[in-house]
Design brief:
It is a single chain. By secondary structure, the chain is α/β, with parallel strands linked by helices. It is built from 7 helices and 8 strands. It has an 8-stranded mixed beta sheet with strand order 3-4-5-2-6-7-1-8, with helices on both faces.
């Protein structure tokens, strides 16, 4: 028999541990920047695919650059138990038969047609509601797959509604948390005083993980929201299911 391969996962801090200990099917983590959400999500996914041979997991981010960074990190950490790896497709097959793929939600229709046992949506507040409800959520149905949604808040959009479901004791399949940046013990305490210099609404959203009213939301990806010349007042807004 060959030598048993061992992959060592990380040691979570208090906030990350609460997230890992939950058995809810849908876990929603609203967190401040640098809380350690990506590290928590990555390790949770790795634990799942290792403990459940033959399963399929996806990591979905708003854009491919974000997903590709996690793909490279996982490729390095999982090297001893990787059977095949495709850099082009951002796909990793493990020796136990499990597979992980790393996707962008930029074109939601590319997310259709696959059944999933496990899903992570990274920076979920920046992923469209249509991408989640029309493409990703249905992929969990036949296998009763689990989902992890991690993000810094961005107004009171669909991610906020998922967070509220996780706070509702009647929603047994959901659990959610709100973790500020400062729950990460590896952040220099002096940074908290320094960060207080930023505008109050920025501080509340980006560091305290508060869900602000839409008019107070901190705008990210501003370049993507600027209309081209001659298109002032134009919009490419699409109606999402259930919206009126």
């Amino acid at each position: 028999m060959g030598q048993k391969q061992i992959v060592k996962l990380y040691r979570p801090h208090e906030g990350q541990r609460k997230f890992h200990e939950s058995s809810a099917r849908f876990r929603i983590c609203a967190n401040g920047r640098r809380f350690g959400k990506t590290m928590a999500g990555t390790n949770d996914m790795l634990r799942f695919v290792i403990d459940h041979p033959g399963t399929r997991a996806w990591w979905v981010a708003p854009v491919m650059d974000q997903a590709a960074r996690v793909f490279e990190e996982v490729s390095t950490r999982m090297f001893p138990i990787i059977a095949r790896r495709s850099v082009t497709d951002k796909r990793i097959a493990l020796k136990n038969g499990s597979e992980m793929e790393f996707k962008s939600a930029h074109e939601p229709d590319h997310l259709r047609g696959v059944g999933l046992d496990y899903l992570v949506v990274d920076e979920a507040a920046d992923v469209s509601e249509d991408a989640y409800y029309s493409c990703l959520r249905p992929a969990l149905t036949d296998r009763r797959g689990k989902a992890v949604l991690i993000s810094t808040p961005k107004g009171r959009n669909w991610f906020y509604r998922m967070y509220l479901a996780g706070q509702d004791p009647l929603q047994a399949e959901y659990e959610s948390w709100q973790f500020p940046t400062w729950m990460n013990p590896y952040i220099d305490p002096a940074e908290k005083a320094s960060a207080a210099e930023v505008p109050a609404h920025v501080y509340k959203q980006e560091f305290e993980a508060d869900f602000l009213e839409d008019e107070d939301t901190v705008f990210r990806n501003v370049r993507d929201k600027i209309c081209p010349p001659g298109r002032v007042g134009a919009t490419n807004r699409r109606t999402v299911p259930g919206e009126r």
